[in-house]
Specification:
With 221 residues, this protein is an alpha+beta fold. A hairpin with a 2-residue loop joins strand 1 and strand 2. Belongs to the aldolase class II family. MtnB subfamily.
Amino acid sequence: MAFADILLEQKQAALDDLRGVKELFASRNWFPGTSGNLSVRVGDFTPEEFYFAITASGKDKSVHTPEDYLFVDRNGKPCETTGLKPSAETLIHCEIYRKTGCGAIFHVHTIDNNLVSEWYGDQGFVPAQGIELIKAFNIWEEDAAISIPILPNYADIPKIAALVPDALDPSVPGILLRNHGIYAWGRNAFEAKKHLEAFEFIFEYTYRRLLLNAAGSNQAR
């Protein structure tokens, strides 16, 4: 399917999804500065041909303007004539879409996901076990355990993108960049939002647990 063949309603639906999610996440202060990026796939998907709407680079995500988003192809190149630049991290979205076939990818920077990714960075993953929100990933085993992958935060984005395929875990719809932020995805915008909220709960829980453990160790001395 060529981009020109994608129905206007599909394109508008993707933009509507992005607008709603952007407004919600901005209200939670998940886009400090102009950080973070959001994307939603449009049209039929194959690994060889797909398109998605993504937030434009350098925009204040706490406000809405007619130039907040643009459409790009599987290589992250604009599909329409535009003066907008896609997010610098669009290539990471391209790899996740290509490997997972997902319908939406949301990336935010929070204090908790930065601190937790730095704490476990040398280990290469954040361990989480027995946390109720793991069920958001359709994992229902009692006392379930997951490992959330952490990738190095290289300044060279293609270098990060090249690591994405080998880091993906089909059961864990998220990847952390160390001291940077989380990418979470799902079949559609609703599921990607659900997954992102679950990850953020797990990161906050993990960070607070580390603080409590440290306080307990100090009191025991």
